[in-house]
Specification:
Helices cover about 35% and strands about 20% of the residues. The protein is α/β, with parallel strands linked by helices. The protein has a domain at about 55-110 and about 155-325. Strands 1, 2, 3, 4, 6, 7, 15 and 16 form an 8-stranded mixed β-sheet that branches. A 3-stranded antiparallel β-sheet has the order 5-10-9. Strands 11-12-13 form a 3-stranded antiparallel β-sheet. The N and C termini lie far apart (about 80 Å). About 30% of the residues are buried.
Length: about 350
């Protein structure tokens, strides 16, 4: 009898421990690797069975591919070339918004403006003809100012990145103001741990652009990208991802709203944070992310930047595109297009 009683107590203790571990895992307090892998396997299986095929032409990817680098030149390109690129995307191709998956962290001095300014202040200070001509050319040679004006006039979202805690504390560039206040989700504090630093754009660009969003990617324990972070706590509030801010500017630039809903599962109530971007309400996990509903095959039209800059006529794949995602070269050190494995192959590079 005593042995049976001890066995029952042991079973009850194990059951209680299991329940506590599962609760800790679900709440995010104590993520269990074995459960994360099991969840990932289930999601991959479900996704492969249910993923839609075909092309979603509401979004187009402008690819700075190998062909673009051969024909246009090595990356990074000068800001006057970026102005030309944006002019053609908006004026000739008719896109509704652009998300720039790259950081413009340093001034562009490729025009020679700084050298000419030094000459105008020293050796050629007395040359009236030179000074007059220089004053005429100065606005054209200030590539950064031209790019800033191009940003201010269009629905464009810049990109930047956060540095996770423990991986450095550099803070470069001008970080945008938080889009949501710190209490946007009440007492709940969804999202990853607060980062320790960031890499952002020059102040002249951040001040001019309608919006900016971070492009940090999330990878599961097996290194596969199944989720996308949409919110990040930092400083006095929450910042939005580049995908969310691009959607925001595409639909007029209205600031998002956020809150917490209560959902019931198996008789228990759980808090579910959400954000609403341009009328699209998105439920979030406690990590501030959503699972990505990948499409099979090549889900978006890919267009080489060389075609746009060389004046190629817009193809049918651009006619209904609402937004354009500018994807830089894969080896760009300050760009967001990091290559993470997907649950199955969905990306297709533009032929070179």
């Amino acid at each position: 009898m005593k042995l049976a009683s001890n066995t029952t107590l042991a079973q009850a203790a194990l059951s209680a421990a299991f329940v506590v571990l599962m609760a800790a895992h679900v709440s995010g307090w104590l993520p269990l690797t074995v459960m994360q892998r099991a969840e990932a396997l289930w999601y991959d299986t479900w996704l492969k069975q249910t993923a839609m095929g075909g092309v979603d032409d509401r979004v187009a990817v402008l690819d700075i591919d190998e062909r673009s680098l051969r024909e246009i030149g090595r990356w990074p390109w000068s800001r006057d070339r970026m102005v030309t690129l944006m002019d053609r995307l908006f004026d000739d191709y008719g896109v509704a918004a652009i998300g720039l998956d790259v950081v413009f962290a340093e001034p562009d001095t490729s025009s020679g403006l700084d050298s000419l300014s030094r000459l105008a202040a020293s050796e050629l200070a007395g040359q009236r003809d030179f000074l007059a001509r220089f004053e005429q050319l100065k606005p054209q040679l200030d590539y950064d100012a031209r790019f800033a004006r191009a940003l201010a006039e269009r629905p464009v979202s810049l990109g930047y990145y956060f540095i996770p805690a423990g991986m450095g504390d550099d803070r470069t560039g001008a970080l945008p103001e938080p889009v949501l206040p710190a209490d946007a989700f009440g007492e709940l504090r969804p999202g990853p741990a607060e980062p320790s630093g960031y890499g952002a754009n020059l102040e002249i660009f951040q001040r001019s652009a309608p919006a900016a969003g971070y492009f940090n990617m999330l990878a599961d324990v097996d290194g596969t990208a199944r989720q996308m972070s949409l919110i990040q706590r930092f400083g006095d509030g929450y910042h939005l991802s580049l995908s969310a801010t691009t959607l925001m500017v595409a639909f007029g630039g209205e600031l998002p709203t956020a809150g917490v809903s209560s959902i019931s599962i198996l008789g228990r109530d759980y808090a579910e944070p959400w954000i609403d971007v341009s009328g699209i309400r998105v439920p979030l996990g406690l990590n501030g992310a959503v699972h990505v509903p990948y499409r099979a095959g090549s889900p978006f039209p890919y267009i080489s930047a060389a075609d746009v800059l060389n004046g190629a006529p817009s193809s049918s794949s651009w006619k209904t595109a609402s937004s354009c995602w500018v994807r830089p070269p894969p080896d760009c050190p300050t760009c967001g297009s990091r290559r993470f494995p997907m649950p199955f192959r969905v990306w297709k590079s533009t032929p070179t």
